[in-house]
Design brief:
This protein is of the alpha/beta class and about 525 residues long. The chain has 18 helices and 13 strands. Among the domains are: about 120 residues, Orthogonal Bundle (DNAb Helicase, Chain A); about 220 residues, Rossmann fold (3-Layer(aba) Sandwich). The strands form 3 sheets. Strands 3-2-4-5-1-6-7-8-9 form a 9-stranded mixed β-sheet. A two-stranded antiparallel ribbon has the order 10-11. The protein has a two-stranded antiparallel ribbon with strand order 12-13.
Length: about 525
C-alpha cells in the first residue's frame, strides 16, 4: 500500500547561507609587511630595491599604508629614511596617532635585523594584494550580474577592463644586461642577411620595402588618410601580397566593414572585377571564368578576418594572442583605430581614450613581437589648405590625439593628388592613377615619399613598375583577351582552337557549368 503524504503540512524554509560561513580572511601577509617596513627603516638603500614593486595600497593594514606613504615622501625629497625621520614625517602628515604612535615604529624596527630577502618578501605582499583585487572585482561583477537591469555585454566589457588594469600592475620587466640583447640583434642581422628580400614582413610593394626592410617586429605602424583616399584598399592589397605572395599569416580586424564586404573587396583586387558586378552577380562568361580561376589564390591563404564592431582593446588583446599562438600570425591590421574603444575604463575625453588605445597597441606589438598596422583618420586641416603642397597631409593632421604620433614607430600617409583634381606635378608629369605613400615618421629609418599605382576600378594598389592592364582586358590563362572579342552571336573565343562557350552560361575552371558562388 502506497504511503499517504500529508500535503497540508507547510514546507520548512532552509536556513540562508551566510557569507563567509567558513570564516575566510582576505589574502594578507601582515608579518611580511612588518618585516619589509622594518627593513626599509634600518638599511639605507633598502627602499630603492622595492620602490618600483610596492605601492601604499599593496599593504593590507591601513597603518602600514600610512607608514609607506611617509617613506615615499621622504624618498621623493631625498631625505634619509630611518625610524626618526619616518616618525617625524607621520607627524607632519597628521597620521602618527592613527598608526599607533612612535612606539609602533620602534616595534617594527625591532622585529628585523637586516634587509635579507627583502625583494622576495615584497613580491609576496604584491601577490596578496593582487589576490585581494581579484576577489574585489569578482564580488563587484557577481553583484552586478544578479541585477536584472545590468546589460551583460557592458558588464563583460567592464570586467575585462578591470582585469586589464590588474594585469598591467603586475607587468614588471627586469633590467637586462646588454650581452644577450647584442646576441639577439646579431641573430636578427644574420637572418636578414641570409633571407632573400626584407628582414621584416614584406608588404609586397618593392619601393616601400626598400625603405622599411619590411614591417619590423614590435613596431606600431599608423597609416592615415582622409576618407576616400584608399586606406582600406591599401591594407587589403598589402594583406593579399603578404598572405598570397609571401605566405605570411595576416589577421585583419575590420571595425567598419563586414566580413563579406571585406572579401568582396579582396575579390575585386585579386580577380580585377568591378565592385558593382560582384554585388549584382551580372558577370559575363569570361568574367566568371576569370573569377573561378583567380579566386583559387585566396582559398586556403593564411588570411584571417574579424568584423567585430566597436572592438575594444581588451578583446583585441585576447584575440591577437590566440591568433599568434594558434595560427602563427605575423602581422595584425586594424581598420581603423578611431572606431576602437577602451570599455571598462573611465576617461575625461575621447582624446584620452584614443591615447590609451594607441599606447595599448604599441604595448601589444612589443608583447607579441609582431608589427601592428592601424589605420587612422585625418582631421579636416587638409581640406582647408590649397595648392599641390598644401593638400599633402602632415603629422599635425592626425585626428583626436597627439599620442598616436608619439606612440607610433612609423606614420605613413596615403595621398592621391588626382582626388583633389591635381593631375600634374610641378614638372608637368602626370599624376593620374598615382598614389603617394608619405613616410612622415620613421623611428628606426629614413623618411621618404613612395609612388604606387592605384586602380580605382578595382580598389587596388600596385607597384609602379607592374605591367599596366587595360580596364577592359583580362587574362584567361591562355592569352589576353578583351571584351570586344565577344561576337554578335553571343559567343566568346578562348585560347587555341577557338572553343566557343555561350556567354549566358557561367563557366567553371573545373569543367562544370555551375555558378562559382
Amino acid at each position: 500500500m502506497a504511503e499517504k503524504r500529508n500535503y497540508s503540512k507547510k514546507p520548512t524554509t532552509p536556513a540562508p547561507i551566510q557569507a563567509n560561513e567558513y570564516g575566510k580572511l582576505p589574502p594578507q601577509a601582515l608579518e611580511l609587511e612588518e618585516a619589509v617596513l622594518g627593513a626599509i627603516m634600518i638599511e639605507k638603500d633598502a627602499y630603492s630595491h622595492i620602490s618600483e614593486m610596492l605601492k601604499p595600497e599593496c599593504f593590507y593594514k591601513v597603518a602600514h599604508q600610512k607608514i609607506f606613504e611617509a617613506v615615499m615622501l621622504l624618498a621623493v625629497h631625498q631625505e634619509p629614511i630611518d625610524m626618526h625621520t619616518v616618525t617625524e614625517q607621520l607627524r607632519k602628515n597628521g597620521n602618527i596617532d592613527e598608526i599607533g604612535g612612535p612606539y609602533y615604529i620602534t616595534l617594527l624596527t625591532a622585529k628585523v635585523s637586516s634587509a635579507a630577502h627583502l625583494e622576495y618578501h615584497a613580491q609576496i605582499i604584491v601577490q596578496k594584494f593582487l589576490a585581494r583585487e581579484l576577489i574585489r572585482i569578482s564580488s563587484e561583477i557577481q553583484s552586478k550580474a544578479f541585477d536584472d537591469k545590468t546589460d551583460v555585454d557592458d558588464l563583460m566589457q567592464e570586467a575585462e577592463g578591470m582585469l586589464f588594469e590588474v594585469s598591467q600592475r603586475n607587468l614588471k620587466k627586469d633590467v637586462t644586461q646588454i650581452n644577450p640583447v647584442i646576441e639577439e640583434a646579431r641573430k636578427r642581422m644574420v637572418t636578414a642577411a641570409t633571407k632573400q628580400g626584407s628582414s621584416g614582413v614584406s608588404s609586397g610593394f618593392h619601393s616601400l620595402d626598400k625603405v622599411t626592410s619590411g614591417w619590423q617586429r614590435s613596431d606600431l605602424i599608423i597609416i592615415a588618410a582622409r576618407p576616400a583616399m584608399g586606406k582600406t584598399a591599401f591594407i587589403l592589397s598589402m594583406a593579399k601580397n603578404m598572405a598570397v605572395d609571401y605566405n605570411s599569416p595576416v589577421a585583419v580586424f575590420s571595425l567598419e566593414m563586414s566580413n563579406v564586404q571585406l572579401v568582396n573587396r579582396l575579390i575585386m583586387n585579386v580577380c580585377q572585377l568591378e565592385g558593382e558586378k560582384i554585388k549584382n552577380g551580372q558577370l559575363d562568361t569570361y568574367e566568371w571564368e576569370k573569377f573561378d580561376k583567380d579566386i583559387n589564390m585566396l582559398i586556403d591563404a593564411p588570411l584571417y578576418v574579424d568584423d567585430t564592431p566597436s572592438l575594444s582593446i581588451f578583446e583585441l588583446r585576447s584575440k591577437a594572442r590566440r591568433l599568434v599562438k594558434e595560427h602563427k600570425v605575423e602581422c595584425l591590421i586594424i581598420d581603423y583605430l578611431q572606431l576602437m574603444n577602451a570599455s571598462g575604463m573611465s576617461f575625461g575625453s575621447r582624446e584620452q581614450e584614443v591615447s590609451i588605445i594607441s599606447r595599448s597597441l604599441k604595448g601589444l606589438a612589443k608583447e607579441l613581437d609582431i608589427p601592428i598596422i592601424a589605420l587612422s583618420q585625418l582631421n579636416r586641416g587638409v581640406e582647408g589648405r590649397t595648392g599641390i603642397e598644401g593638400k599633402r597631409p602632415q603629422l599635425s593632421d592626425l585626428r583626436e590625439s597627439g599620442a598616436i604620433e608619439q606612440d607610433a614607430d612609423m606614420v605613413c600617409f596615403i595621398h592621391r593628388p588626382e582626388y583633389y583634381k591635381i593631375n600634374e606635378d610641378a614638372n608637368g608629369n602626370s599624376l593620374l592613377g598615382i598614389a603617394e605613400i608619405i613616410i612622415a615618421k620613421h623611428r628606426n629609418g629614413a623618411t621618404a615619399d613612395i609612388q604606387l599605382k592605384f586602380k580605382n576600378t578595382y580598389a587596388k594598389f600596385m607597384n609602379i613598375d607592374d605591367l599596366s592592364m587595360d580596364d577592359n582586358s583580362f587574362n584567361t590563362g591562355y592569352q589576353t583577351i578583351t571584351s570586344k572579342l565577344n561576337d554578335t552571336n553571343g559567343t566568346s573565343f578562348y585560347g587555341e582552337g577557338q572553343k566557343n562557350i555561350p556567354t549566358n552560361t557561367p563557366f567553371s575552371a573545373n569543367g562544370h557549368e555551375d555558378v562559382p558562388f
